[in-house]
Design goal:
By secondary structure, the chain is mainly α. It has a single domain, classed as MFS general substrate transporter like domains (Growth Hormone, Chain: A), CATH 1.20.1250. It is 78% helix and 1% strand. The protein has 16 helices and 2 strands. The protein has a two-stranded antiparallel sheet with strand order 1-2. Helix 1 packs antiparallel against helix 5, helix 3 packs antiparallel against helix 5 and helix 10 packs antiparallel against helix 11. It is globular and about 65 Å long. Keywords: Membrane, Transmembrane, Transmembrane helix, Transport.
Amino acid sequence: MPEATHEEVRVEAFPGRPPVTIDPGKVAPFGWWAAIVVALVAFIDRVEYNLVAGALPAIQEHFGFGDTLAGAIPTASAIAGVILLLPAGRLADRGRRTSIIGLVVLTWAACSVLSGVATTFALFFASRILLGAAGQLYNPPASSLLADYYPGRARGKAYGLERAGYYLGLPVGVAIGGALAQAVGWRSVFFIVAVPGVVVALLVFTVREPLRGLGDRIDRLRGATGADEAPETTLRASMLGEAREVLRIGSLRGVIVGLSLLYLGLGGLFYWLPTFLERTEGLDYDAAAGLAGGVGGMGIVVGIVLGSRIGDRHHGTRSAWRLRTGVGFLALGALALTGAVLLPGLPLRLTLVALSCVGFAGAIPNLTAASADVVPARQRGLGFAVLQFVTTLGGAAGPLLIGLISDAVGSLRIALLALIPPLFVAIVLLQRTGRHYDEDARRALT
């Protein structure tokens, strides 16, 4: 589709720099580099985080622990990150976001090395907790950064790229973990992956810090050049007070709860899928990790492309379009996952896993972009921190819940069925949330 053309205008875009000339009619007046770099950050985060899932059988054999402790590794890591999320969100609303993200990525690389040198399970567990604590800190500043670089109709694609990196990192981390653990030993896995982490951190420092509210200002320029700017509001002193103010936005509350239930299912699925295939299909763990990674990655790519295109296509012209699109994809993912757990046969199971990944990957960027649409620019860092806070708790519960049930009943298949009901609850909740979305989105621009 050809882009609309507008008269070029000069705007202040970057702190301490002269105004730049842009065409507000372009979908992405500043290009896609910022979104690509953030996608790489999300990718390397999930690769490092999910190495354990691919190498889990080898690590369990080395240290000698059961499924409950195995499920507790990502859960404890995520909870450690949650503790720092609200301060990170507040810092994202005040500090230089590109510097915050770059330093966080360097910290991930250091924590990955610590995992490789751990000599006891306690030390390994502690290193993963440190990685989890650092891993959650990139999301609030990165999400806020994207909202300022990209106006409303480009946000679905921008967040789609970030979510593509994030969810491609899941299967790639699983596949790399399994393959390298089999080939060179599980310790070497963590040393090797630290290197690209350093490279990505250096790329982050090439992105300029934009002025806050820049994307919203471009939206107003599209309506009428010289339109009034949104009034600046004094930031509140209390972090918890700001969080309560953000949570008064009804649509945001619905999206947060819906996404947290989705992440519970998705986190549990990806963490345990290689082990599930190993136990039910009799595969070696490196083959199981490779299949899980390949099939999941293919589904994620298709879902991101479809979800982003469909979600952006009618944004602003059809009521609650992004939420409705997200609900449709989520329903597809939930139904396919149900079949993948219940129906026998490796080819059918892998096909349904791929289809479930299409659904989840198509839903998440639409719901993430919808949350950006309903939060004012001055509060987006904290808004995304609150979103990440609750969704991280949801995602953290998935692996531990499955591990507990698996040890209790002796069946990983039965344990995976516990992921299904929360997904359908999320569908119903998000459908109801759509009633208030358009009004909340209008308020965010005033």
